[in-house]
């Protein structure tokens, strides 16, 4: 994945926090708290459970940061800790959640001829995503919204890269089928 300014800044914050810079730690938490909560919400389906899992994860992240060998791996590493916290705290029973408001607020606007048409298209995609199983929805969101690569998603979700590719493929097929059915 290409490294943009935001990723480089996150790497700098992680390296500084690892070295004991409290201000860098606070900025890192402020930048990553919403992302980690969205990820936990996608996995648990419940905003309260998500906040609890992320709060517990921050303790583990703080303790383990000094042992993180490569700060470039911070995003996938932190997301994996949250994933494990969600699995540990709530078992493997993840229920589907009703809304994707956090995803909708997160999206970046693509160039469109008409904003109204774009809004309808985005609403249709979000509705289709809402119907995906939690595992597929999490992989798809990490890829398209958090801009992680397959290897990083594999680390974040604690699954093999082949499983990530399969989940992405199935998620895209389901969304495509839903959207093609909606336009007919």
Automatic annotation (TrEMBL):
Q: Where is the signal peptide?
A: none
Limits of the RNA polymerase sigma-70 region domain: 28-95
**InterPro entries linked to this entry:** RNA_pol_sigma-70-like, RNA_pol_sigma-70_dom, RNA_pol_sigma70_r2, RNA_pol_sigma70_r4_t2, RNA_pol_sigma_r2, RNA_pol_sigma_r3/r4-like, WH-like_DNA-bd_sf
Where does the RNA polymerase sigma factor 70 region 4 type domain start and stop, copy by copy? 124-175
Keywords per UniProt: DNA-binding, Sigma factor, Transcription, Transcription regulation
One of this protein's Pfam families, by short name?
Sigma70_r4_2
Similarity comment text for this entry: Belongs to the sigma-70 factor family. ECF subfamily.
User: What is the protein's name according to its record?
Assistant: Sigma-70 family RNA polymerase sigma factor
* Organism of origin: Luteimonas rhizosphaericola
Q: What is the lineage of its organism?
A: Bacteria, Pseudomonadati, Pseudomonadota, Gammaproteobacteria, Lysobacterales
